[in-house]
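Colleagues,

For the teaching module next term, I've prepared a clean inverse folding example: a structure given as tokens, and then the sequence designed for it. I'd like students to try predicting residues themselves before seeing the answer, so please don't circulate the second half yet.
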């Protein structure tokens, strides 16, 4: 599925300008819109870069643009803009007001007292206590 004109109008200004030399340089061989379509194809299908269909630019070109845009921060800017549009369409603020970290254990500093730290037998690591206490019938390996 290719980008619509409305979607392209949102994404295009977020991309870096083409790299050209002091005398102007040569034109890009492949339109940026087709490059973005190819990148979204890889993201949507989960295929390898080498499996980009022949309808798009050659896979090394698509991958080169992706790494360039990622390093320039364009990928993050596009992500943030699209996230904002989706949130506004749902009637929420464009920027999230809170974050969520999903983890069974909270890491502690080495200077934390041993009484507040547990020991992960499987990984043989000292970690913080779980965010929630185990139930009465659940075996706890981290102490009382």
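(Answer key — instructors only)
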């Amino acid at each position: 599925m290719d980008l619509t004109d409305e979607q392209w109008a949102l994404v295009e200004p977020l991309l870096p300008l083409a790299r050209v030399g002091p005398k102007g340089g040569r034109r890009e061989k492949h339109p940026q819109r087709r490059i973005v379509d190819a990148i979204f194809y890889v993201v949507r299908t989960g295929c390898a870069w080498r499996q980009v269909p022949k309808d798009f630019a050659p896979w090394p070109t698509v991958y080169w643009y992706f790494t360039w845009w990622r390093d320039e921060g364009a990928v993050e800017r596009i992500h943030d803009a699209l996230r904002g549009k989706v949130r506004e369409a749902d009637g929420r603020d464009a920027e999230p007001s809170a974050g969520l970290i999903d983890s069974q254990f909270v890491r502690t500093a080495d200077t934390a007292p041993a009484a507040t730290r547990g020991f992960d037998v499987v990984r043989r690591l000292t970690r913080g206590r779980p965010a929630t206490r185990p139930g009465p019938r659940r075996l706890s390996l981290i102490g009382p």
